[in-house]
Amino acid sequence: MSTGVRQQRAAATRRQLIATGLALAERTGLADMSVNLVVAEAGVAKGTFFHHFGDRSEFLLALHTEFHDRVFAEIERTIAGMAPGRDRLLAVAHAYLDECLRHRGVRALLLEARVDPAIIGAIAARNKLVVQRSSPDFAAMGWAHVEPSAAMWNSAVVEAAILELDGGGHRPEVRAALEQFLQGPK
């Protein structure tokens, strides 16, 4: 078997393990997701798991990274060509919320991952990136405290995702509340 074929098979197995983990996250949460459960569901040997991931924490980090890479790609497609400002912030928020609803296992990544030492650093890095990317929107709207505003907006959007996931789906009142935050109270 050629090196290229082996690499393709290895990549496919890694993707299968990650897909299995994301599906399990919805059913079991992260706390109850054991390596044994993942390999049983994926139909691979335990050694195969450890060939791809050094340990369970590395696997959880891969789940977190995979989900957020998908979300960022969808957000980039959604806002391509949009000028910074309120409309772009709302487009990002809606794209994020919609992706969370498409991948319901993300609830475990949003809640349980916040306390997992293996993922905390990745969460902080992602949050920093979101603040960097959304700061121009707040600057375009004339907000005085751009970076703190972007950080708080990020937290509000994540909380909105949790509310929708807990509520079983799209919640117009949650999304309307997000819009209201950007215009202030009436």
Your description of this structure?
The protein is mostly helical. 78% of the residues lie in helices and 0% in strands. The protein contains nine helices and no strands. The longest helix has 26 residues. It starts with a helix and ends with a helix.
Annotate the secondary structure layout:
Layout: H1 3-28, H2 35-42, H3 46-52, H4 56-79, H5 86-102, H6 106-111, H7 117-140, H8 146-167, H9 172-183
What attributes characterize this protein structure?
mainly alpha; 0% strand; 186 residues; 9 helices
Provide a brief overview of the structure.
With 186 residues, this protein is mostly helical. It has nine helices and no strands. The longest helix has 26 residues, at 3-28.
How far from one another are the termini?
A: 67 Å
Question: Roughly how much helix do the residues carry, as a percent range?
Answer: over 70%
As an assembly, this protein is single chain
**pLDDT averaged residue by residue:** 89
Structural category is mainly alpha
Major sheet details? none
Poorly predicted runs are none
Q: What's the total count of β strands?
A: 0
Strand content: under 5%
Q: How would you describe the shape?
A: elongated
Number of helices: 9
